[in-house]
Amino acid sequence: MVHTTSAAPRGAACGSDRYVSGGAGNNMDAKVNGCPSGQSWEPCCAACGSALQASRALQSGWYCEKDFFSTGIWLKGCQRKKTCGI
Description:
globular, alpha+beta, 5-stranded antiparallel sheet
């Protein structure tokens, strides 16, 4: 079960203070928020994706991608690259 956080009314929690905006799902393209200060975005996003997969909100095949301007990292569902279940 994915819980909505009070910090992100339309977001899905994915760990200690981490959440994705807009909710979770296999077609998601959502910014990961709440990464701990000093932690690089990649492990934060990977932990978020793993948590959502463990809660069955995502299938395997999700991936993380930084934006062009390096303002954050986005968690993308497996349907973006047709990699669900791989």
